[in-house]
Amino acid sequence: MILVSLFLLLLIHGAAFAAPFPLTPPEGFRALDTPNDAGTSISLVWKASPGDSKDRKVQVWLAEKKANGSVGEFKKITELPSKSRYIKPGDFPWWDQPAAKGDHYVKIPSSQSFPIEDGKGYAAKLVIREGDQEVSSPVSEATPAPNWVNLAQINNLAFVVVFTGILLTSIGASRRNPHMYLRRIAGLDAVEEAIGRSTEMGRPILYLTGAGDMGDVSTIAATVILGEVAKKVARYDTTLKVPHRDPIVMAVCQEVVKEAYVEVGRPDAYREDSNFFITGDQFSYTAAVDGIMLREKPAANFFMGSYFAESLLLTETGASTGAIQIAGTDSDHQLPFFVTTCDYTLIGEELYAASAYLSREPVLVGTLRGQDIGKAIIMAALILGTTLATLGVLVQSDAVNYILDLFKDFK
Amino acid sequence: MIFFKRQLPLAITLIMGVVFALQYYIPHPVSEDAITHLSKWMQIISGFAMVLGLASLFQVHAMKIKRQVPGWGYSGILFFAMLATLAVGLFWSKGETTANGVQTAFGWIYSYTMVPLQATMFSILAFFIASAAYRAFRARSREAALLLTAAVVVMMGRVPLGQFLLPWTWDVTQWLLNVINSAVRRAILIGVSMGSVALSLKIILGYERSYLGGGKDQ
Lengths: 411, 218
Description:
The complex is a heterodimer of chains A (about 400) and B (about 220). Chain A has about 400 residues and is an alpha/beta fold. In chain A, about 40% of the residues lie in helices and about 20% in strands. Classes of the chains: A alpha/beta (about 400), B mainly alpha (about 220).
């Protein structure tokens, strides 16, 4: 009797496992204008089904609406497994979700085979297939339209506004109290020493502004530091050589150096050929600068700005000539090479802080305080985020995402 | 002409800085078209700026030849190579590196002189890395000894022979790279990002203007 019961039980269980979920039209299917886009795509959403599997396929069919309101011929756009394209936490922020978490979401961008234009109407339907069976969803219509604001990135904009406010407040505070403490940056303190050494040895100073153009913040920082270095060079009456990879950077640096000489009252000592162009090619430039180092043996080499594979080729050659070397870069991948081969290295943000440090102007120094407050906020956000994310996992709750989403970068 | 030298550039910087920053938040085609348009302008300006660069190059090397400074012969070689490449490219090859599937003279110059020269410079890096590593990994202090140990473990963990001889180095390497190294890199990147945003704001708002030349006339 027991054996028979067990057999029946197994039979029922087996039947339950084997019984496929019947093919049903997708629930809650709708087409919509893709949020936060240029109006060249439409999106489709529908509810998840217990029958979703890798073997069950979903075909997306689209048709263009004609001017008289009728729907044109449907065209198959794509086919995907029904157990895919779910909305996961982190895909969309809670304030701008096209559908609930766990629903299916498919974005259909404009393509050559099926162009999608803003302002035109489109009809969409899904066909669910499994084996030789298929069911179709009701047709849903949407008209793509471009958006003026990317709502998913509004948190990012809010942080920019807050950070700008912090910076302006810090600048205001530094104007009222100009004697703010700045921690010592050895690399910048060594600038004076390097220039003095060059003067004593009667050798030139070589200053490189990196691989970037004037669109790179690090290159701008390098030109700003060049101005301060040039003032000291002008006072000491030493030779400055600035070889360039970018003609626009060269033109800016010429102006910066000339103004520096004028400012310290030595316009007569300025040489037009102190800034000169070599080439835009990475390794040709490196070979030329290495040649200058070996032939003219500068007593001090400055490497400021962004660098790539040429960093070690430049600094190792400079080290072999016995020059005092000061580097400053935001290229984190090149930092080990600079640290190894240079006497002093400005790491990351120190490069940006250099102009404030060297000039000691209260307005510039104030922004450093603002940066520090910004970093404190980021550190607090990191601790809060880690705690909340851990709590969310422990209590199995999505409620923490309302706060975590505020700190995420959504595209 | 303080207006053209200071106020106008600062106004352009402010307007373009705000426009470029806001563009990031505006997906509308108007915004995208404007950026495409501005990018084309930047390319055109860069093209004209190349004339400045070439003028500087000619001036510097012509002066070296004129004064016959030591090594002036290299300046002569530079002029010869530049003008010869220009002539071959313009007159013999019409700016093309291949024609009907066959390499042109201009293409030959690029493939058989420029590329090997670039490869030579790049390959020197291997020797420079060896000499720099030797200098960095001399265990002269506790920090240097720690660096040396970590480097040896990572090197062993990254090569098949090292993993075969010391299988534990794989896990330690992964931990060093994913935990210690990543944490430090992220800290540096956060600092870089904050500094970059702060400097950008200073430039857009006109607080930092020394890149225009001078800086005391605020």
